[in-house]
Amino acid sequence: MKKILAIALILSCITSTIAQKNLNDYKYVIVPYKYDFVNEKDKYQLNSLSKFLFNKYGFEAIMEDGDFPEDLIKNRCLGLRSDVLKEKGMFVTKLKVQLKNCDGDIIFTTKIGSTREKQYKTAYTLALRGAFEDFESVKYSYKPNETILSRATTNGTHESSIEEIEKLKEEINTLKEKKESAVIEKLKEEVVEQPIENKNDVKKVTEKSDENVLYAQKVSYGYQLVDKTPKVVMILLETSKTDVFLVKDTNALVYKEGGFWYLSKNDGSKPTLETLNIKF
């Protein structure tokens, strides 16, 4: 029995040493802004907590949507991409942390952190902290690896690539603005063709009770309009025009004119126009 325990201990030490050597080859850890098992960016602050814990155990962690250091921009292979995976469990929350290199190879996977806590935020936090305890025994310390360093692009190639990317971005933005302008003008022409209610009538409709009021909530791509339920009624996509929005997944336009908000639709048969009571 003692012999078996001794062998197990030796194997554990060897595994830990190999893992340490592999991890020490990498200078950065890139933390995603969202994990697949949750449906929101930094849900329960799990991604922020991951970055904090990586830094706690000696790594230099960077958020995926943050500013990358110059050497990481030139050579993505200097960084490991982290992920948190959820394991199945009956009444138990189980999480493990995985690190992959720039080729998608798994470099390190932690033990599973688990808890029977019922509240999601507390459960995920406890399980994640439990998984991260594995990094304490690794005792990470960056030691440059010549093979990985050699994968960096040359300055000339890097600068050239940046210039090409910027040119492509400009061309895409120009085409996008032209397309938006064409769509907006077409929809506005259709609106002009149909008779619009008397402005006084429009004002009366707008000044009715707040039962039909829609509240605009800022999101990354524009605004989402929600009612009092609250239920998302529609999503407005920003355009290059002030106070003019495209309605997502619909051939419609929301715009402001004369102090009032209008929704213009075209279902292919005839255009319609209605007023909206939007509060920003």
Automatic annotation (TrEMBL):
Residues 1-21 form the signal peptide. Keywords: Coiled coil, Signal. Residues 158-185 form a coiled coil. This is Uncharacterized protein.
